[in-house]
User: What shape does this take?
Amino acid sequence: QVFNITKVGTIAGCMMTDGTITRKTRVRVVRNGIVQYTGEIQDLKRFKDDVSEVRQGYECGISIKGFNDLQEGDNIEGFEEQEIKRKL
Assistant: This one.
């Protein structure tokens, strides 16, 4: 479910299906198999409380920095980027 809140923006009501998401996790919004946006989490909430992480099996609310076009049915995927030094 998607909530539009004045002065806050759009918040996606989500169910964590796998893994853990934190405020520092980068996310991408996928709609119909196409990546719509890649960015950072602005707010992460459980009910009305701000939280630092949400684990698998729990519901949460996610607001994404610079992206308010969330729609019901969108998938929000969290990911981490790792820098690996090349070796010769």
Remarks:
- The chain has one domain: 2-79.
